[in-house]
# Entry
Amino acid sequence: MQILDGKRVSTKLKDEAQKEVTQLKSAGITPGLAVILVGDDPASHIYVNMKQKTCEDVGIYSIVHKMPDDISEEKIIETIQMMNKNPNIDGILVQLPLPPHIDEERVIGSIDPNKDVDGFHPCNVGRLSLGMDCFAPCTPLGVMRLLKEYDIELKGLDACVVGASNIVGKPMMNLILNEFATVDICHIHTKDLSSHTKRADIIFVGVGKINLITEDMVKDGAIIIDIGINKNSEGKTVGDVDFENVSKKCSYITPVPGGVGPMTIAMLINNTIKAAKKRGK
Ligand code: GUN
# Structure
């Protein structure tokens, strides 16, 4: 069994990003990222701080628009429209979730698709499903980059994606389908989850349920990608996979923490650099 070490790979990618940003700056372009953070969800604040700190580390200009919980939808959209027009901003990211009175679809839909570094705008979602060049969501994109780093080819593999969210499961499905995996996508209403996981050469799981995937649900030598983030009863960060027992049976596995998580921010940085390179084109 081999660990897919997202921490190591993301550190390497950040070093490469830093060099690329230096080159862009010498050509007169400082990549810029605007983050919109609404309300005081503690997890969102932690994620945004991590994103901002990484931007600083690699030399990307970043600005965080913090807004109160009771802000109006119009004010958020006005800010996005301002960022759409701002030539120093290449990427715009609205941290989710938004408060319940805000229409998430309208807010995401107001981002210029060329600055949509999260890949959530319907235009990028459509382009991804058509296999066109696009901004793909950072977490599944990070998984793809990690697999590439370990020379894991998806063509012809039987894959099982557990979780069908817009942020993780659906884009994961599209990315691996574009690489010619055969994909089962399972969700809360799937009748017999283990009948799908047991057949899979590779399992992707990101639903936020501790020990959802146990060793009896995994075939020998399978590849396990754990995209879940949970806190267990001892306050430790764990994924959706029973790591201790499943790791004895599989060929590769991502740990939590230190697997997919660090790759997400590395992909946000890559997407922002990609947007900056298109500046003026
Ligand atoms: N909330 C949870 N994950 C994400 C993400 O990848 N991007 C944004 N914008 N919000 C999130």
